[in-house]
Amino acid sequence: MIRRSVFILSLILLTQVASAHDLLLGYLELRQTGPETFAMLWTLPAKDELRGLHPDLPADCKTDPEPQRMQTADSFIERTIITCPGGLDGKTISLDPKWAAMLDVLVRVVRPDESTQVYRLTPVTDSFIVEAAPGWVQKAGTFLVQGIEHILMGIDHLLFVLGLLLIVDSRWMLAKTITSFTIAHSITLALAALTYTAAPALPLNAAIALSILFLGPEIIRKQRGQSSLTIRHPWVVAFAFGLLHGVGFASGLTSLGLSRHEIPLALLMFNVGVEIGQLFFVFIIIGLEHGFRKLEIYWPYWVQQIPVYVVGGLGAYWTIQRTLIMMGYT
After folding, report:
1. According to the model, what pLDDT value does residue 2 have?
2. For 22, what's the count of Cα atoms within 13 Å in the CB-facing half-sphere?
3. Is 267 in contact with 189 (CB distance < 8 Å)?
4. Are the C-beta atoms of 127 and 93 separated by less than 8 Å?
C-alpha cells in the first residue's frame, strides 16, 4: 500500500511546515525611468530586526537622499529614485549573507517597454547580475523554475495530492486522478492569470485548507472498506477541488506583475513547472513504495497511519486557523 511508504514524505512536509514560519519574504522592484535612472520600491516584513535593511546595489549607484518611507501593519515600505551611471546592465545586486539566511527577496527589473526580468535572492543565491537583454529562453526558464518552486513550497497543495494518493489503489486510477487535477487547476490558473476570474486570498486559503480536511474522513472510510463518491470516482473530486487550487497557483504567477505580452509564455512555462513539481512529488512516493516492496520492508500499523493523521490533522488546523484569520480574530 502507498500509505506504508509516504510516512517519510509526511515527516518531511511537517518539517517544512514547521520551518516555513521562519522564512520572511521581501520585494524589490526597479522600474527604469530613464537611461540611468530607476524608481525603486523596497518592501520588507514589519519585523524590528529588519528595520533599515537595504539590498546591496552597485557601488556607483546613488539614491535619492530623501526617500519616501511608510509602515503598514505588516510591512516596511520605501520608495526612492536611484541613478546608476551606464544603467544596471551587467551589474550585481545582492543581499547581505547574514540576512539572506532568513529572508527571500523577489526582485523585478522593469524596462521602459514593460518587459520584466525576475530574480530571486535566497539563502543559496544571495546575488545576481542584471542581464542586458534577456531572451525568451531565459524568461521561459525563470517562469519554469518559479512554477516548480511554487508547487514544491506549497505544502497545502502537496498535502492534497498526498491525500488523493492515499485513496487511489490502481495505477490507472492514479493517472486518471492526477490528470483530472492537472486539467482543472490549469483551467483556473489560466483564467486567474488572464484576470478573467479572481478570489479574495483569505477565503481562498481557507477553502483550500477545507479541501485537505475533506480528504481525511475519506481516507478512513477507504481503510474501513466503506464506499463513497470520492472513493469510487476520486478523479471527480480531484477535478472539483483542482479548480480551487488553480486559483491558488495563480498567486505565484500574478505576484510577478507581468505585462500583457509576457503572460502567454509565463502561463505556459509556469504551468509546466507546476506539473513537473507535482509529478516529481508523486514519483518520489511511488519510488519509495517500490523500493520498500523490493526490500521487503513493512511498517507497523501506527507508522502506516502517520500520513492519514498528517492530512486530516493539518487540514483541520489550517481550516480553523485560516477561518479565524479571515474573520479577523488573529
Report:
1. 47
2. 10
3. yes
4. yes
pLDDT at 64: 82
0.85 exceeded by pTM: no
**What is the model's pLDDT at position 152?**
83
d(CA 127, CA 96): 9
Element (H, E) at 50: none
Pairwise CA distance, residues 104 & 19, whole Å: 14
C-alpha cell at 104: 527571500
Please identify which residue in the block is written with the cell numbers 476520486.
Answer: 234
Asked if residue 6 lies in contact with residue 85, where contact means CB atoms within 8 angstroms, the answer is: no
How far apart CA 277 and CA 148 sit, in angstroms, is: 5
184 grid coordinates: 482543472
Low-confidence ranges of the chain (pLDDT < 50): 1-22
Do residues 118 and 146 make contact, with C-beta atoms less than 8 angstroms apart? yes
41 and 28 in contact (C-beta within 8 Å)?
yes
Q: Which residues contact 233 (CB under 8 A, 6 or more apart)?
A: none
Grouping H, G, I as helix, E, B as strand and the rest as coil, residue 197 is coil
pLDDT digits (tens, 9 = 90+) for 268-295: 888 888 889 899 988 888 888 778 778 7
* Whole-number pLDDT of residue 38: 94
The predicted pLDDT at position 254 comes to: 67
C-alpha cell of residue 151 = 508547487
Q: Which three cell numbers stand for residue 26?
A: 521581501
